[in-house]
Amino acid sequence: MKTILLVIDGAADFPCESLDGQTPLQAAHTPHLDALARTGIVGSVQVTPVDMYPGSDAANMALLGYDPAKFYTGRGPIEAAAMQIPMEEKDVAFRCSLVTTDGVTMLDYSSGHIDTEDSRKLIELANSKLGTSSIKLFPGVSYRHIMRWTGGPTDVRTYPPHETVGRKLSEILPEGDGDVVLRKFIDDSINLLNDLPFNKRRREEGISPANTLWPWSPGRAPQLTAFSKKRGVTGGLISAVDVVRGLGVLTGLQIINVPGATGYFDTNYRGKAEYAVNALDHHDFVWIHVEAPDEAGHMGSVEEKVKAIENIDRHVVGTLRSLLDGKVDYRLLCAPDHMTPVSTTKHAIGPVPFLLYDSTRPLNRGHQLPYDERALDQTSTVVDEGYRLMDMLIEGQA
Q1: 221 in Cβ contact with 80 (< 8 Å)
Q2: In terms of CATH architecture, what is 2-72+223-395?
Q3: Residues 52-99 pLDDT 10s
Q4: Coil, strand, or helix at residue 31?
């Protein structure tokens, strides 16, 4: 039996006025997901504990079958693992986002989705000017980078930039152990980057300048049992997002690189499905992660979110079905990791709908539940702890 975990990041939402009270999942044309829902199980799952911030780091950890209440230490060390940054026992890794501020307000969490080549030059400059014997910067993808602080603090409150756009910096600066160093680092980054010719050109072109470094979500390297040892099967991971790839590295999954996978609206949807099917020649499990719905939610774009969901249905789910149906026995679990409502542009706490399909056990329940948020109130299959979904996928429990 082959098993597939498909995470449609941030796809769940609230009813939208512009969609006549429908959610993007409801409004999107999803014939392939609808077909699987007709003979599968549609349920409700609380992916992360209700007292935990529903970030993609903790949520994807849960969907992979690891209880974040026990194993989650922070986003920074997970992304550091993806980037193969060495982490010793005393090292603390922060996600360090390259953002846009005016020195007073958080304006753009992604610096206009800056190109990786451009951001790398800025991070290398910042490391040479702001780095110390204990603090080092490592360039990542687009606006996503890492600060490693040897002997650094973990008991400090930080704020994710994508949740704080429009807020005053004075309200969201780090608080707690090490906050003096972190605040000075942020100020120094503004002084270093703000007036660079590169950022002057971006302003002239109407593009957000990349003028501030923002460290957040620190932690030490988590200790996770290898997926193959925990589940008895080997697996692969397809994702363009470091926080997800890091979980793959930490759990011993094969990281599968797909040409054109970007973690954005223009990602290679079909390629992800095709490479996943190829991976099933060597593995019994593959995890496909698609970031686009989450990006649309953070942008507040209903149109882009509906389009992303439709692209996933047509090019990912449709391709999987065309390549697997009638040829391979498989189970597929499809779930968002959290809600990212376009009305708030932030992650929201609450249950999300999941779909579990087994090609060897088509069900006929008489009443078809839709694969969208309406199922949350109608389903009899309710999972209170998201990490238990993996048992249902791997072991065929229902």
Answers
A1: yes
A2: 3-Layer(aba) Sandwich (3.40)
A3: 999 999 999 999 999 999 999 999 999 999 999 999 999 999 999 999
A4: helix
